[in-house]
Amino acid sequence: MLSPPPSVDVLEERLSQPSSAAIEALAAVEGDLLILGVGGKMGPTLARMAVRASHQAGINRRVIAASRFSDGSLPARLQAWGVETIACDLLDEEAVAALPEAANVIFMTGMKFGASRNPALTWAMNCYAPALVCRRFRHSRMVAFSSGNVYPLVSLDSGGSKEADEPGPIGEYAITVLGRERTFQYFSDRYQIPTALLRLNYATEMRYGVLVDIAQDVLAERPVDLATPMFNVIWQGDANAMTLAALAHAANPPRIINIAGPAFLRVRDVAEQFGRLMNKPVRFAGQEGSTAYLNNGSEGHRLLGNVSVDAETMIRWTADWVQRGGESLGKPTHFQVRSGKF
């Protein structure tokens, strides 16, 4: 049994360990890799994994990371891992035009939190920026992040939303995410761009994620909200690896792939498990609803590889990390929100 990560350095090393599927994909696709929007929660370790996977595949390629870099320390960290960095605002057409050529592009940029306060910027980030990128990289292969929020809330016994299900976005944020998908689909058709669209739900690690939200509530003896009674999560390292593996499955028309863990977890059960692990009483608020955002990740596992860290291990690691006062990104997921307003 793998022990919990004792430090941020060990955590980030684990989050950037490539899977065999990621290594095989980066051996199969030719050319450099450009990661757009690398400054988010997943981007840094995904970029590091791309370097490691390329080396293990015996491929000499540039891995280039672009972001506004609001965290001024991030470029140096990425460069130490062998990642080139470029400061770029993806809403600036001239800046996008000046980005270097890359045969492979991963698009991670998006706006969720604060969407209700600034809907115009949300539409620009989630729909206009993809259009600029598609026009600039019309000769590249693309993997673009979407979200499980494009699906409707589904019943707890549904087995989760599948890729062929009709979208049913709730709220303006989710509508713009579907708009992002439609933008990539349009330009994929227009320019014959091989594309994969990844509907992620939800990536987690020790500093961020649904499990961290619940563990922090239990540790602080705050009531755990039951309004959204169930969820599924995936270890961020596995989500990183599946993202890189998706490069080998980009297609025209775009291939839609759910990125999700295999287990559906009940909020009540997870909270009570955290209570036992941290020796804390557990309190709840509200009534359990009958629906939730649940992704069926079986097709993604078939195409991109199985998970390496299961839910029980993530729960155990999260309890250890939160109880020790480990670093937190301070960004709640708001997974309980059912109105679509973020």
Keywords for this structure?
two-stranded antiparallel ribbon; alpha/beta; Rossmann fold; globular; 342 residues; 39% helix; 15 strands
Nutshell version of this structure?
The chain has 342 residues and is α/β, with parallel strands linked by helices. It contains twelve helices and 15 strands.
Written account of the structure:
- The chain is α/β, with parallel strands linked by helices.
- It has a single domain (8-323), classed as Rossmann fold.
- 39% of the residues lie in helices and 15% in strands.
- The chain has twelve helices and 15 strands.
- The chain has helices at 8-15, 20-28, 43-56, 74-80, 93-97, 119-136, 171-191, 210-219, 236-245, 267-278, 298-304, 311-323; strands at 33-36, 63-67, 84-87, 104-107, 141-147, 154-155, 195-200, 203-204, 224-225, 230-231, 234-235, 255-259, 265-266, 284-285, 291-292.
- Strands 3-2-1-4-5-7-12 form a seven-stranded parallel sheet, with helices on both faces. A two-stranded antiparallel ribbon has the order 6-15.
- α4 (74-80) links the parallel β2 and β3 (84-87).
- α3 (43-56) packs across α9.
- 48% of the residues are buried.
Query: In the CATH scheme, what's the topology name?
Result: Rossmann fold
Kindly provide the name of the CATH class: Alpha Beta
At CATH's second level, what is the architecture? 3-Layer(aba) Sandwich
Structural class: alpha/beta
Taking Cα atoms only, what radius of gyration do you get, to the nearest Å?
Answer: 19 Å
Give the DSSP E fraction (strand runs of 2 or more residues): 5-15%
Fold blueprint:
Layout: H1 8-15, H2 20-28, E1 33-36, H3 43-56, E2 63-67, H4 74-80, E3 84-87, H5 93-97, E4 104-107, H6 119-136, E5 141-147, E6 154-155, H7 171-191, E7 195-200, E8 203-204, H8 210-219, E9 224-225, E10 230-231, E11 234-235, H9 236-245, E12 255-259, E13 265-266, H10 267-278, E14 284-285, E15 291-292, H11 298-304, H12 311-323
Parallel strand pairs: 1-2, 1-4, 2-3, 4-5, 5-7, 7-12, 8-11, 9-14
Antiparallel strand pairs: 6-15, 10-13
Helix pairs in contact: 2-3, 2-9, 3-9, 6-7, 8-10, 8-12, 9-11, 10-12
